[in-house]
């Protein structure tokens, strides 16, 4: 009996210990989860003695800092995550938008600072990184030092703020601060590089700008030496972040211009995340895509190419179809890449306002803002479908537009794709038959409006079948049509529009030879060598460090639990 009782007691003790262990583990895991908005977010998690030194320099182009090969920054790279192709806020109209990106971890749409006027700021909703840190750790000691009073006034409310007289005074104040023992984070802001760029130019070819970058490097050296002299430095775990808030305007050589966001020197930043514990990780310019090279026709103003007679082959009727083309937009009359409704291809008498009332049977693809639209009128109805979801049209590089008409579940649909990515679909059953007695035309359609495009068009294909999604993706960035293409037998027309025009015609390399007559036999061509189907600006921005990533990196380093309701846009970069 005693033996059985002892065994029962042992089993009970083991079960109790297991329960306590599991409960403790669940408590620990629970304390690290991200609460839902509105829930109690009190977190009780013990972390190590981690600290952050953040050095922000205005106007330092990443490429210029890279090419300067300054000794201090170069010395950090073997133990740093680093990039020379970082990006600042594309829509910034003033440097304060980039500062606010850095400190809030969200983009300008959320924090509301677009220019240097803080009147529209939403810092009450998206507060600074300092506020996030002190909410988690009320004992955190944070200092921010800058020679700019606006900088201090708007970002220094949750930190001990010190206004300096100039960059040299910033350095001296940082060195003095680092001599104190009780620190969690120090932020220092420098302006001399920006001022040098504005006075001379933002490139190393200007001695004043080069000297300013070299001087900043020397400043960093003095600050790091002061950091390493801290009494407790060996027992502290510092992350040093050195980053530029933005670059500066400079006309880069045409051979270096890929017409993507990476060719805008104003947006070109650098970032160095240094820790003795890090391995070296370089984040370079991402792969952008293949290039489309050759002579191309510019369809601007009223330029067009048209079939000499109506051809029923290109009617859309009630049947399935696929239309594909490549387009490279130029700057329009507003000196940007946004357009108001100009046609790029269609089969209808006219394209103008009143299309919903006037009997303009047929179809047209036209530009609108920074996307494209399929518009049609049939014998029963009319409408349009906008490709304004997901990826928009990239500026100044080649894009592929695809529209597929298909039947599904006794209804007729159109599906729109940009660069092979599905964008939007719509039920067009109510439009009826989309036939038109007017000839197919590429470029300008007759109109009473002032709608004018400015774009290169190429690789136009019309198929008498509905191309499935996987085929659209697979071939969207290819050129030409291989006879082994799985849908080659359904090809109705193929106009490469590459090379000089032949006798005032655009030749159809498809099976039916439906050659197009140019509006003027002397339309010129231009030699181009540009990327095709390049990732969107949003996609590219996710592949390199951006200004709003700085906050995410700091929060991660300090092990402040990131909350979903903060709605941070920034990501954390790892050295693996």
TrEMBL record:
Any Pfam family matching the protein: DUF4983
Single Gene Ontology BP annotation: carbohydrate metabolic process
Annotated GO MF terms: carbohydrate binding; hydrolase activity, hydrolyzing O-glycosyl compounds
InterPro entries: Alkaline_phosphatase_core_sf (IPR017850), ConA-like_dom_sf (IPR013320), DUF4983 (IPR032309)
Residue ranges the record marks as coiled coil: none
SUPFAM superfamilies, per the entry: Alkaline phosphatase-like, Concanavalin A-like lectins/glucanases
Domain of life: Bacteria
Domain DUF4983: 483-574
Keyword line: Lectin
Protein name (database record): Concanavalin A-like lectin/glucanase superfamily protein
């Amino acid at each position: 009996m005693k033996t059985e009782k002892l065994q029962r007691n042992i089993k009970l003790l083991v079960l109790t210990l297991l329960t306590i262990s599991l409960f403790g583990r669940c408590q620990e895991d629970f304390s690290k989860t991200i609460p839902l908005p509105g829930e109690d977010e009190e977190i009780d998690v013990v972390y190590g003695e981690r600290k952050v030194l953040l050095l922000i320099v205005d106007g330092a182009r990443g490429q210029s800092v890279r090419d300067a090969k300054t000794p201090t920054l170069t010395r950090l790279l073997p133990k740093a995550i680093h990039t020379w192709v970082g990006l600042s806020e594309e829509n910034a109209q003033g440097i304060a938008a980039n500062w606010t990106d850095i400190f809030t971890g969200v983009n300008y749409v959320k924090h509301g600072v677009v220019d240097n006027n803080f009147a529209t700021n939403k810092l009450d909703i998206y507060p600074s990184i300092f506020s996030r840190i002190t909410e988690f750790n009320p004992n955190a000691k944070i200092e921010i030092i800058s020679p700019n009073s606006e900088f201090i006034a708007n970002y220094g409310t949750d930190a001990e703020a010190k206004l300096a007289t100039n960059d040299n005074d910033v350095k001296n104040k940082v060195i003095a601060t680092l001599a104190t023992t009780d620190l969690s984070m120090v932020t220092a802001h420098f302006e001399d590089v920006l001022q040098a760029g504005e006075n001379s130019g933002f490139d190393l070819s200007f001695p004043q700008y080069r000297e300013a970058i070299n001087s900043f490097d020397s400043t960093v050296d003095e600050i790091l030496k002061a950091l390493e002299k801290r009494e407790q430095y060996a027992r502290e775990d510092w992350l040093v972040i050195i980053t530029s808030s933005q670059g500066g305007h400079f006309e880069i050589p045409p051979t270096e211009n890929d017409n993507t966001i990476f060719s805008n020197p104003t947006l070109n930043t650098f970032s160095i995340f240094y820790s003795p514990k890090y391995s070296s990780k370089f984040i370079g310019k991402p792969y952008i895509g293949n290039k489309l090279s050759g002579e191309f026709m510019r369809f601007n103003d009223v330029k067009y190419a048209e079939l000499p007679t109506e051809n029923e082959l290109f009617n859309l009727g009630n049947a399935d179809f696929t239309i594909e083309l490549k387009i490279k937009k130029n700057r329009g009359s507003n000196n940007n890449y946004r357009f108001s409704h100009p046609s790029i291809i269609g089969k209808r008498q006219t394209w103008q306002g009143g299309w919903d009332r006037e009997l303009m049977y047929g179809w047209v693809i036209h530009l609108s803002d920074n996307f494209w639209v399929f518009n049609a009128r049939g014998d029963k109805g009319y409408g349009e479908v906008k490709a304004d979801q997901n990826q928009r049209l990239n500026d100044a590089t080649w894009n592929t537009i695809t529209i597929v008409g298909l039947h599904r579940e006794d209804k007729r649909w159109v599906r729109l794709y940009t660069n092979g990515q599905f964008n939007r679909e719509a039920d067009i059953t109510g439009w009826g038959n989309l036939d038109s007695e007017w000839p197919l035309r590429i470029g300008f359609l007759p109109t009473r409006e002032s709608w004018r495009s400015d774009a290169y068009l190429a690789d136009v294909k019309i198929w008498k079948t509905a191309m499935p999604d996987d085929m659209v993706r697979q071939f969207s960035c290819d050129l030409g049509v291989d006879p082994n293409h799985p849908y080659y037998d359904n090809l109705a027309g193929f106009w490469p529009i590459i090379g000089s025009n032949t006798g005032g015609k655009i030749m159809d390399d498809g099976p039916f030879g439906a050659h197009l007559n140019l509006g003027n036999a002397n339309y010129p061509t231009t030699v181009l060598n540009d990327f095709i189907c390049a990732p969107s600006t949003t996609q590219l921005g996710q592949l390199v460090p951006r200004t709003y990533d700085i906050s995410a990196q700091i929060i991660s380093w300090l092990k402040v639990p990131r909350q979903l309701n903060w709605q941070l846009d920034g990501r954390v970069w790892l050295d693996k």
